[in-house]
Each structure stands twice: as C-alpha cells, then as structure tokens.
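[Meeting: bench + compute handoff]

Bench side (C.D.) handed over the final construct sequence. Compute side (W.E.) agreed to return the predicted structure before the next meeting so the bench team could plan truncations. Sequence as handed over:
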Amino acid sequence: MDRAALLFWLWMLFFTVNALWALSQAAVASSFGVRPTLVKLGVGPRLFTLSLGGIQWALRPLLPFGSAVSFEDPAADADSKAPVDNRLRQLPVALHAATIVLPWVVLVVVAMACLGPGEGLRHFATGFALPFQVSLLPERIERFVAVLRNGEFLRAWGLISAKVAAANLLPLPVLAGGSLVMLPWRNRRERVPVWAASLNLLAMAFAIPWACYVLYLLGAAVLR
C-alpha cells in the first residue's frame, strides 16, 4: 500500500471512530430525554451544516482526531453564567454518567466484533496502560501501521476502537474519564477540591507531550 492510500485509511479509521462516538452519545442522551443541540463530526473548517431532528449537525472532516457533542441551550442568554452543558446536568447523576460511558462501550463492542470477544476485551484492558508504557510505543505503532499496510482494515478498526475507548476513560480533564471524576461537582464547579484541580493540571502536562510524540511516531511510520 502506498503512502497516499495509507494516509487515507488512517484518516478514515480515526474519523469513523470519533464520529461513531459522537453519534452514540447523541443517541444515548436522546434516549434519556436530553437531546443535544450540536454534533460536530471532525475538527477544522466546516464543510457543511444541516439541521435534522432539532439538532445541528456540522461536518468538519479535515482533522479526524476529535468530535464534539454540545448540550448548550441555544436560547440561553450569552451573558448567563449557567453551565454550558446545562441540559445534561438536568439528568440524575447516574444517567449523566451513563451518557458519558455508554458511547465508549459501543466502541468496545466494535472492537469485540472485529477482533473477537476475548481479544477485543484484552486490547481494551491493556489500553489503559498504553500511555504509561512510552518505551513500547514505537514498536506498537509500527505493528499497527503494518496491519494497515497488509490491508487488514477490520482488524485495524478493532484495535483503534479498543485503544481509543480505553484512553478516553482515563481521568484527563478533556476526556470522558475526567468528566466522570468531576461529576460530584457538576453544578458547583467553584467548590472543586484542590486535589481534583491538581490532577487535571498534572494530567494535561503529561497528555500534551505524549500526544505529540504519538503523532510523530505515526507520521514517521507512515512516511518511512
């Protein structure tokens, strides 16, 4: 497989995983009676926006490394100090937590379907340790790129679904795990304890260089 095709399939896999998460969260929240106001698929310049089912859908496919689901009330006053995700915060804490977790469960199910139940769960479980095994990253990324080069797209989809689900459940402030940690203070952010704020700062100080290193390794493996 040449570089152009490899880059396309990498883009397709990352976009599919992130879009599936966003669509799953929108579906889960809607089933609990809380409809999102905006679903962004991808990051970057907007390709198009449409309104469907009372939700604004925005396709931003240039960068496939993230999507977003917003629950901000569009009728709210811009100067209001109400939480931006006030629709979610109207839910009981258990349903709020389920809205955060269940979309990632969908990705674990995808991994199990692609790799087999046992292997899918194993890759999900080992994904929690992946950020802390920095010395193993070059070899693992090389193996993942080799899977793509060999045309094993279903296996690659399963692997990336399992690892992305595990990584997003870590307690980082911008990820699902961080949102779960902050749930006890969802309506009184000014009372967040010092330990929780410190955890967020430490997590971000670690996560940003780690993500840059992973992108570097991925780029080097693809362009080699």
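W.E. noted at the follow-up: Strands lie at 38-41, 48-52, 55-59, 68-70. C.D. will use this when planning the next construct.
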